[in-house]
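Good day; I would like, with your permission, to put a structural problem before you. I would ask you to consider whether the tokens describe a fold that such a sequence might reasonably adopt. The full record is reproduced below for your convenience:
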Amino acid sequence: MRLTHPLLTPANYRKYLSLLLLAAVCSSSYAAELSRVRPERVGMSSARLERLDSVLNTYVDEGLVAGQVAVVLRKGRIVYSTANGMRDKESGIPMTEDTIFRIASQTKAIVSTAIMILHERGDLNISHPLSRYIPEWSDMKVAVAREDGSYTLEEARRPITIRQLLTHTGGMSYGSGPAQKEWEAAGFQGWYFANKQEPILESIKRMGSLPLDQHPGEEWIYGYNTDILGAVIEVASGMDLSSFLQQEIFDPLAMHDTHFYLPQSKADRLAVVYQPGDDGVEAIAARDGMQSQGLYVQGSGPNMSYSGGAGLLSTAHDYARFLQMTLSGGELDGNRILSRKTIELMTTDHLEGKPFRPGQGFGLGFFVVTDLGARGILGSEGEYGWGGAYHSTYWVDPAEELVVVYMTQLIPATGVDDYNKLRSGIYQAIID
């Protein structure tokens, strides 16, 4: 390149390029941070949010949870963010806002989003039968229970579609149906996959030989639907699920701390899982299983199976970025993940009257509030969300431009009413 300006010497030019690179890095790092604002600027009360802070702290003080992180966004800005208690009580490590949590079924919304990315591109269609992508799910049978505890088999009345998997109407539970013994014998009982010695696609292919609990499309049943979708993503994209999510969602949204298996360099940020004890909560001793610390750190287990239904680890702030993308119509910081119309489809009730919860339906990966009075708690019609087995939860309220993420690690969370207190504390702080 010819240098014509008298001050643009080769040395100065190299310095100029370095400054440009530094500015780009700083700009990228800034974009990865959700901006904070005084609550009053976006219609919320600082004083009233202090009430919420006091209430959440009581759960730590009374030993009901070891610690918690909560993040609230209004109109795209952080109005409340707190870290209370301990990440690791036994080691005396306090909870921090960058603590990493096992988000379990909060994985489902991310994987459902990945399916819709492929749908938009024409790499799959949610009306297609599952067997088009995984032939082992052809000619399905349904187990019909008898009074004596046995069952008979019926031909499935229709094929399972991708949309049915997105809405949890595919017909399969987590292996607890009439053919439970067969599911257990095949190694499928519950949502934990981190100890499996085979890739998720191979697991799902084997699962296709097992009887369903119900005819597809006839009942909302919570189960392996989204794990199956994770395998579909691998077939349709030609990539493993972890790589696809990294390329299409985590990197564009700057979700730098979201992983299936945590790098050793981040292992000390992973919160300990607790269970109720005689004197407050106590750390779970087990290292492997559904109610355990889990084999979620690289090198601690096979690290082979990417569970689309419950396998991810994340931070409250990473997950808030993902949710803000959905609230913003599929885009965040100039990076478009989905179209506005696709987000609308995902957050619309698809159950067509099938029994679910009072005042709620289910969309493509989320519950959806359809009747505020029938639901009976603070919120808005059109609100959507879900949660995770380790007692984490989230919701998005488009009417109020709210994103809420609440993370803790407690299983089972018996006798803990923090969800309702969290919800009340947020909505009572709205003043516009």
About this structure: DSSP finds twelve helices and 16 strands in the chain. The chain has a mean pLDDT of 93. The CA atoms of residues 250 and 256 lie 7 Å apart. The longest strand covers residues 77-88.
